[in-house]
Amino acid sequence: xxxxxxxxxxxxxxxxxxxxxxGCINVFAPDGELLGLINAKEVTAFRTSLAVxxxxxxxxxxxxNIVVFGAGKQAEWHIRLALLLCKxxxxxxxxxxxxxxxxxxxFETLRQKYPDVSFDVLVTSVPEYDSRLQELLSVSDCxxxxxxxxxxxxxxxxxxxxxxxxxxxxxxxxxxMQEVDGETLLSGGKIFVDSKEDCLIEAGELINAGxxxxxxxxxxxxxxxxxxxxxxTNHVFKCVGLAIMDILAARELLSLAKSKGLGLDIGDL
Length: 269
Prior knowledge:
By secondary structure, the protein is of the alpha/beta class. It folds into two domains: about 1-45 and about 245-260, no CATH class; about 45-240, Rossmann fold. It contains nine helices and twelve strands. The protein has helices spanning about 40-60, 75-85, 100-115, 130-140, 180-185, 195-200, 205-210, 220-230, 245-260, and strands at about 1-5, 10-15, 20-30, 35-40, 65-70, 90-95, 120-125, 140-145, 165-170, 190-195, 215-220, 235-240. The strands form two sheets. The chain has an eight-stranded parallel β-sheet with strand order 7-6-5-8-9-12-10-11, sandwiched between helices. A four-stranded antiparallel β-sheet has the order 1-2-3-4. Strand 1 (about 1-5) and strand 2 form a beta hairpin. Helix 1 (about 40-60) crosses helix 2 (about 75-85) and helix 1 crosses helix 9 (about 245-260). Pfam families: OCD_Mu_crystall.
């Protein structure tokens, strides 16, 4: 995925394998000199989660109770940034197929840093999963979808209609993938997106619901976004990711690493 701006150019190379998504981001100076390479996995999770924080922080309602679907890097950075940037968070629950050891380790660290926040995991294999999920979602303030699901995580009926929510969806990136049903997707009226064009092509939720371009509002269109956001109870944000996110995040991280003497300088090799 190539991208170029006036100050630098980057190429993100991604490999899809049985071990998951792996890749690197190559950052170049305007004259073509290679400035550095950086692992794409962490950067992608960070920049996507950072994009979600834009509408999340602008959501004017409660943000105390957050439910996160998924337990990978995307989920981790959603949690880290939400806690760092929002002081209202009181409870975070991970919903996942298994009880991931890495997430438990993360929770132990976060419990020490945020003693007033409760951290829980709901595993989909428990016998009472459906009833517990419905109870959990009915009182949720925010929902972060972070998995490449092919079927919705829950039916819209699990959500309390009278309660306003922020819902972000970053997991699906193919037409065959879908984290929520059409009713949930359209529950706020307009859908906030990072890119109208890309979401209409890649996001299974939008494709399956037959969403039109005039139903979408890009968060980069600040004036229009702020105007629409003030009129909606539920805020639903769909993000498929943009190459410019990679180049900006990677460039800044390489600059930061250089200033701190981190990384490996390979010179002209």
